[in-house]
UniProtKB/TrEMBL annotation:
One of its GO terms (molecular function) is metalloendopeptidase activity. Residues 35-107 form the Peptidase family M23 N-terminal domain. It comes from hydrothermal vent metagenome. Gene3D superfamilies: Glucose Permease (Domain IIA) (2.70.70.10), Peptidoglycan hydrolase domains (2.60.40.1590). This is Peptidase, M23/M37 family. Residues 180-274 form the M23ase beta-sheet core domain.
Length: 292
């Protein structure tokens, strides 16, 4: 496909469909919040008359979600995103492309030091590596899952509990540096039911070396939620799940310091801050920031 966007003629043709970046205040209902920082998300409001066939960023397809009939492109930014100007590409039904620029701002993530009693979960044995590698493949396959059709992204909070850790913290296990925290931790007693944040389909479920018992739920167009360290799993791969349906219970399986739910959200194959999908937790998040 030819690259048309920068020709003045097309610029003119697209003048009426230029999209606008909107920053949302915290609202009572759970429409995701735009926060264009590493680990955050960008929500780009499209003109209602703008018929977009697909949206892409770094060659990955993006979800288009709706609020009050207005379509929004939802783009996840990895923790490693560079600051400054980025571009996404919209393609209309005739195959014409339009580039939209947006800016990624800075965000500082704190460090967290954790002591893990089971040293094998920090420094796995040689024989564990085969399992870890095969699980990595399953995880990456689940992350890349794409289902066409409407997206469900009006998330509910999956359980009552205290926020015990937030997304993006630079982590040290037994003083050894590891990958940053890829989700939101909610501490609750073992056995507490965990509800599906939205309707979806189970695309992966099982026991993983680091994540323990874990379920991946697909909500459409690359929006995926995952639930880790569960005590029990009550669903199977392929199950169609209703919003609020119990997926399993809180546990302390895998690499943990105690019973909690590790909740993660994926958009365009990228792990992003789950709090941006759960504005209902803003008070609990404030409480966390006060104490940490
Ligand atoms: Zn976690």
């Amino acid at each position: 496909m030819k690259w048309h966007f920068f020709s003045p003629r097309l610029r003119c043709r697209y003048r009426h469909v230029f999209a606008l970046l909107l920053i949302f205040p915290t609202l009572a209902f759970a429409f995701p919040e735009s926060n264009p920082v590493p680990g955050g998300i960008v929500l780009l409001a499209l003109n209602k008359n703008q018929i977009v066939q697909s949206a892409r960023y770094k060659n990955k397809k993006l979800a288009i979600i709706y609020k009050n009939d207005t379509p929004y492109v939802l783009l996840g930014l990895s923790l490693g995103s560079k600051l400054g100007q980025h571009t996404l590409t919209l393609t209309n039904t005739e195959g014409r492309e339009e580039k939209i620029a947006f800016n990624v701002g800075a965000k500082t993530y704190k460090s967290q030091h954790l002591r893990i009693k089971n040293k094998r979960k920090v420094n796995p044995y040689k024989k564990d590596m085969k399992r870890i590698l095969s699980e990595k493949k399953r995880k990456s396959k689940a992350k890349k899952h794409w289902r066409k059709g409407a997206v469900q992204a009006d998330f509910i909070v999956p359980l009552e509990g205290r926020i015990s850790s937030i997304f993006g913290l630079r982590r040290f296990f037994n003083e050894q540096p590891r990958r940053p925290h890829s989700g939101l931790d909610i501490a609750a007693p073992q056995g507490t039911p965990i509800k599906a944040m939205e309707a979806g389909t189970v695309i992966e479920a099982g026991n993983f070396f680091f994540s323990g018992n874990m379920v991946y739920l697909d909500h459409g167009q690359g929006i995926i939620s995952l639930y880790a360290h569960m005590h029990t799993i009550k669903v199977q791969t392929g199950d169609k799940i209703l919003k609020g349906q119990v997926l399993g219970t809180v546990g302390e399986t895998g690499r943990v310091t105690g019973p909690h739910l590790h909740l993660a959200v994926i958009a365009n194959q990228t792990l992003v801050d789950p709090l941006l999908f759960l504005p209902q937790l803003s008070l609990k998040a404030e409480e966390y920031f006060k104490n940490n």
